[in-house]
Design goal:
single chain, about 325 residues, alpha/beta, Peroxisomal Thiolase, Chain A, domain 1, 5-stranded mixed beta sheet, 4-stranded mixed beta sheet, 11 helices, binds coenzyme A
Length: about 325
Amino acid sequence: MTRAVIRSTGRYLPPRILTNETLSEWMDTSDEWIQKRTGIQQRHWIPEEGDVGASDLGYEAAVVALQRAGWRADELDLILFATLSPDLFFPGSGCLLQRRLGLRETPALDIRQQCTGFLYGMTTADAYIRSGLARRILLVGAEVHSTGLDISTRGRDVAVIFGDGAAAVCIEGVSADDDVGVLASALHADGTYAESLMVEAPASRFNPRINENMLRQGRQYPVMDGRNIFKLAVHRLPEVTAEVLQKAEVGLDQVDLFIPHQANLRINQAFEKTLNLPEGKVFHNIQRYGNTTAASIPLALDEAWEQGRIGPGGTVVFLGLGAGVTWGAVIHRFPDA
Ligand code: COA
């Protein structure tokens, strides 16, 4: 059977670091409030000067992942690009990344599933590989949030949470009798909550897509019903984890590491508690990066691998919930060394 195996990872964070103290100079917030409610201490943002888009951050992460896999870009059968902050309204950031990688024909597909972009991307890669449509896939998650945040007190509930960054994984189809690679995935969406976390404009439903009045009202900035999203996450994440484990026929104690989307440290601690997981089973790095949306799970994987928290033969569950709302989980086992 052909299995979709993660061969390598890579990450890129722009060097500018924003502390909670800096944000407190711009809006009515405090380091204490941000750390207590979210766990976040700092985040990376792109430089103030210069046009840097999601594809530029994604490119840097992709180069690292490709080099670690020992693959040339022209050996890729497919590029998947997950982002909620695309460089342009269209074409997709995947095409811009493809161009920067020096490719002229390789297909590129954007995934617009926000915080679950990596989970939808892994599942898409798995389907392409199992069906024989592709053998080598590059999956990138990249976000530039900082250019789209309301950094006045009006936007403080959202602005303090998000960070810029990118991460990439190389996924390969391998013939294996053992249970390796993606063992199972579970994806869900519930559009009832579409307005609970959204950017309203510019949008095709408005003519013109945005106007000065809308800009004055701040309708170009993300809005979030934080309490509702929080409640949904705390309920759905344990549920979808049980679902994916059951599909894969893997017990909770056979999982070496859980890598949740990094939306709020308290959400992930609640997940840990609900599943009664022992210390060290859930990976957290939101403290240093904030919420990097589609980049957050592969970014955490890259760090977890570097720190030896997961390695050859290890079983990892990726999980998350975000705008849409969408939620899901993917279970993956790395081959032995
Ligand atoms: N600094 C200081 N005070 C702030 C603030 C900030 N940055 N943001 C909001 N507040 C205020 C609110 O105005 C409110 O004041 P009030 O009580 O006078 O009305 C108070 O803090 C509490 O706000 P609330 O929204 O109830 O806080 P919370 O405990 O729910 O925390 C979030 C807010 C956003 C951190 C939390 O709801 C959350 O993380 N939600 C989920 C986010 C998520 O998972 N998103 C999906 C993935 S992107």
